[in-house]
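Supplementary Text 2. Reproducibility record for the structural model of the 166-residue chain.

All settings were left at their defaults, and a single model was retained for analysis rather than an ensemble. We include the record here because the model underlies the residue-level annotations in Supplementary Table 4.
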Amino acid sequence: MNRTLTSAVLTALLVTVVFGSQGSKPNFTGTWVLDKTHSEGLPPGTEQTMTISQTGDQLNLENKIRTSGGSISIFDTFIINGKELEVTEKRNDEELKGMRVSKWLTDANGFGSSEELTAVGGDGLPVIQKITRKWLMAPDGKTFTVEADITSTAGVQRTKRIFRKQ
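Retained model, structure tokens:
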């Protein structure tokens, strides 16, 4: 009898350790404001507010960015399922179209995405942007970081944006 109970307890412990260590996916839902003092690679005076709603593996976001060069509103959706999907990102009145892959990180604190978007330049010719991002939620859920590499004809821009929940 004691062996059966001991085996059951050990099995339950093993299941908890193996499956419990995978953790749950972070929830990015909320209104987040850029922490300018801890962010890197941004133009001086950049202000940003991101409003996110998340249901399961889908993040819908509204991103408002203001710099000395003007303001931009971005509407976008991330489907975090590891599959390459067609996307349309709206930036003010412009639509960028392309392909994106987003997948949850194995350590359960965020997700990564890789995309190629095409816009129309001022000369009417296509402008292609390749963007890789890593979204990392802090353990306390009060901040998250977006590390991004953006490659275009202008070169590579690297940014690290820290957001605080409001």
